[in-house]
Design a protein that fits this description.
Number of helices: 23
Subcellular location: Cytoplasm, Cytoskeleton, Microtubule organizing center, Centrosome; Cytoplasm, Perinuclear region
Structural class: alpha+beta
Largest sheet: 8 strands, mixed
Protein name: 16450_t:CDS:1
Helix content: 25-40%
Pfam families: DUSP, UCH, zf-UBP
GO molecular function, one term: zinc ion binding
Shape: globular
Keywords: Cytoplasm, Cytoskeleton, Endocytosis, Metal-binding, Repeat, Zinc, Zinc-finger
Length: 795
């Protein structure tokens, strides 16, 4: 973000000081003089702004903030007209320097050359209120594009959190647009800023040592909402995404919605909710617990399993079940996460064979709905219509040059998406009863509406017959408020998650939009998002953030739309309960509930049964060793609020947790178990250290062991959980033969016989695999017939 000069290097390392020069400048006049003009902003946007003395251009340029000056000067290794400008105007009296503060119009960095310090009005406490307002106004003015309907910087927006532009790292506008929409999703934002204690950190996540996106995304969210800067560079976040999807490693324009899906997939893997206990209390036991709080704290069950993080996939796995009417593909639930709770919906596909009348039903989870625009006008294949190739070419050219100006409604597109469609020709379905491809009818229906609904409009088209790719420029009229999804859904009741009133919530309000400007394979992505703090719409064009009106948004050519489920009744309920929490006088016994559940209650319409298993141990108390940041994982509420929430949403059987001294007490049993584990860690570390060697004697063998398991043991030695049985099937086939392309160090390592025997005796598992060298693909020196290790020696 800053120039790579020696002088600017001192800026990066400069500490904040009390600058007297900015105080003099604030009294001289308007902070936006000259920099708010259309010509100046146009030169900055086009990178055509030049130094007043030489030909240097952005980003080496700085603007003097003296309101009657506003000189444009440069700062580089060879030329330093910023200092020349300052020294010429202040030869005699530098203490009264008014031409010493400069702003970089591209990076929005403010620098005082007289004090040799950076001035950050968003976090510099040494600046007085007048100076902070002045500099914030300068930054917000440069941050926004010229808005014809807004002649001056809106002073009410200069302190609004979340108005942070993202630096373009070289054709990364597709990523910036998706990230801005994610950043302004209230439930997700609040999770990372309020429930971050639940994020599994890397030192304790050796099961998946390459999972770093959650922490990187957490840092991104905090930077976006900390209010400490107007520009953020998401280089670490985008680099992490590139590790998981090779498509984004290519240098070129990519699809913004595909990036959105990739981020959600990875976060879903890394942020599972702690697994609930298996035993649930009856309604009578729950009622008695609430009537006798002292008794409720002693709830215990030997059948309860310790909460742990589990892993799965975001796609719904399916199993087939035969019925009299046909085959039903039923979903198998994978783990739940904050991502699936916010973005995941359920789509039902019904297919009927027109020959044998057999029905098929399949359910799939989705993060977004990809719907066609004006489906009845789509290009037809030659099997359906014998249109000439020339007409297809003409249709492609029309879309390519944006000459198609028809307008359709979003509701029409959704109706077409859910309408019954006849599958014929190349789209025929293979019926397992007919044992052939047959004509079928297909109907889609949403059986579970997500809290946040993302709709992708298919604007890109490839015609395989004319070999033309084009973009569909049809304008889709979309509702800003009250999008009713009831005609396109048939929600099913889930007794564990829903009550009857939540099934009736089918309306959504728009809060985000991604717009693609230009042609297919190129162009530029821009995000338009409604800020959840002030309720205003803003355009996020890389580093530029500009306030927009609702009318401006409604006229856009949308590529992706983001809707949030709405419920005035739920909003009123939250308002009343939050008021009761804030008014608590301390008379009632405070109860602690999970922040994860509280976040769901605050921002979703289906929070599910109240649960404390997110932070409770298997003994019904808290393992402070495992959760040292427990105070950041719970919310303290009065007893009356706790009972109200349980009456409204029910409970999963987790015991209530409270403390009469308003503190949080740890589990005595877990404390003893942790002491025993610590003793075990020290003993194993000492024992292995005594018998481990880097070489072996002649006649001995190397015992190959999983690198992943060995890393888990080292994690246990450093304070993590026990690693479990040895699992060498990570590099061996089921028959014991080596898997292909396994690498030494990454997939397996070698230990001597005494270390292997120690691990096998302590943890069990296997299978045994020996070599004369640490090479999985070297010959097995022993056959299973003549060795003491028996049948295990087949590898």
């Amino acid at each position: 973000m800053r120039s790579k000069t020696s002088e600017r290097g001192s800026i990066n390392n400069a500490s904040q000081v009390n600058c007297p020069h900015i105080n003099r400048i604030t009294k001289k006049g308007s902070p936006v003089f000259k920099i708010e003009t259309s010509s100046f902003k146009k030169h900055v946007a086009n990178a055509s702004l030049r130094c007043d003395t030489c030909e240097s251009r952005i980003p080496k340029l700085w603007v003097c903030l003296h309101n009657r000056c506003r000189a444009v000067v440069c700062c580089s290794n060879s030329k330093y007209h910023m200092r020349n400008h300052f020294e010429i105007l202040h030869k005699e009296n530098r203490d009264d320097a008014c031409h010493s503060v400069y702003v970089n119009p591209r990076t929005l960095t403010i620098w005082c050359i007289a004090c040799s310090s950076e001035l950050n009005p968003f976090e510099d406490n040494n600046l007085n209120s007048e100076a902070r307002i002045y500099l914030k106004t300068v930054i917000r003015c440069l941050q926004g594009k010229r808005n014809k309907s807004q002649q001056a910087v809106d002073q009410s927006t200069i302190d609004v959190p979340g108005l942070v532009g993202l630096k373009n790292l070289g054709i990364t506008c597709y990523a910036s647009a998706a990230l801005q929409c994610l950043s302004n999703t209230p439930a997700l934002t609040n999770f990372f800023n309020y429930c971050d204690a639940y994020i599994p950190h890397l030192p304790h996540n050796f099961e998946h040592p390459h999972y770093k996106l959650a922490e990187t995304f957490n840092n991104f969210m905090k930077a976006m909402w900390s209010g400490k800067s107007a520009i953020f560079s998401p280089i670490q976040l985008i680099n992490e995404i590139k590790k998981h999807n090779l498509v984004f490693q290519e240098r070129g324009q990519q699809d913004s919605v595909e990036f959105f899906r990739c981020v959600l997939d990875r976060l879903h893997e890394e942020l599972p909710y702690p697994q609930s206990m298996s035993v649930k209390l009856s309604n009578e036991e729950i009622f008695c617990a609430y009537m006798n709080p002292l008794k409720s704290a002693s709830f215990n069950s030997d059948n309860m399993d310790d909460s742990s993080y589990v892993c799965g996939t975001t796609s719904a796995l399916s199993t087939a079940t035969s019925t009299s009417t046909g085959t039903i593909q039923k979903r198998q639930f994978t783990h739940t996460s904050v991502i699936s709770n916010i973005f995941q919906g359920l789509l039902e596909s019904r297919i009927k064979c027109l020959h044998c009348k057999k029905n098929y039903l399949k359910e799939d989870h989705f993060y977004d709905l990809s719907i066609q625009i004006d489906k009845k006008f789509k290009l037809r294949s030659p099997e359906k219509n014998a249109e000439s190739t020339s007409s297809s070419v003409m249709g492609s050219l029309v879309g390519l040059f944006g000459m198609n100006n028809r307008a359709v409604r979003l509701q029409d597109c959704l109706s077409s998406f859910c309408a019954t469609e006849k599958l014929t020709g190349v789209d025929r379905y293979e019926c397992d009863k007919c044992k052939s491809l047959t004509d079928c009818q297909k109907t889609l229906r949403i059986t579970q509406l997500p809290e946040t609904l993302c709709i992708q409009l298919k604007r890109y088209r490839f015609d395989s017959y004319s070999y033309f790719s084009s973009k569909i420029a049809t304008h889709v009229q979309f509702p800003m408020e009250d999008l009713d999804m009831k005609p396109y859904s048939s929600e099913k009741r889930n007794s564990d998650l829903d009550n009857q009133d939540t099934l009736n919530i089918t309306k959504y309000d728009l809060y985000g939009l991604i717009h693609h400007r230009g042609v297919l394979g190129a162009g530029h992505y821009i995000a338009y998002v409604k800020n959840p703090i002030d309720g205003n719409w803003y355009e996020y064009d890389d580093t530029y953030v500009t306030k927009k009106s609702a009318a401006d948004i409604s006229r856009l050519e949308a590529y992706a739309l983001f809707y949030q489920k709405k419920s005035p009744e739920k909003d009123q309920e939250r308002k009343e309960i939050l008021a009761r929490i804030y008014k608590d006088s301390g008379v009632e016994i405070p109860y602690f509930i999970s922040r994860l559940w509280f976040n769901r209650w605050q921002f979703t319409t289906t929070p599910g049964p109240l649960t404390n298993y997110d932070f409770l141990c298997k003994h019904g108390s808290i393992n402070l060793k495992r959760y040292p940041k427990i105070r950041n994982m719970v919310v303290k509420v009065p007893y009356s609020v706790y009972t109200t929430l349980v009456y409204k949403y029910g409970s999963d059987g987790s015991p209530p947790y409270f403390s009469t001294d308003h503190g949080i007490l740890g589990c005595v049993i877990c404390e003893k178990e942790e002491k025993m584990l610590e003793q075990r860690r020290q003993k194993e570390s000492l024992d292995i250290g005594m018998i481990d060697t880097n070489t072996i004697k002649r006649g001995e063998y190397w015992f190959l062991i999983s690198s992943k398991w060995l890393s888990s043991w080292h994690n246990f030695k450093s304070g993590g959980p026990p690693p479990g049985p040895i699992n060498n099937y990570s590099f061996l086939q089921e028959d014991g033969s080596p898997k292909p392309r396994m690498k030494r160090g990454d997939d397996y390592r070698g230990v001597n016989e005494r270390v292997w025997s120690y691990f096998e005796h302590s943890y069990g598992g296997g299978p045994i695999c020996v070599r004369t060298t640490i090479d999985l693909y070297a010959p097995n020196p022993l056959s299973w017939e003549n060795t003491k290790y028996g049948n295990h020696m087949r590898c």
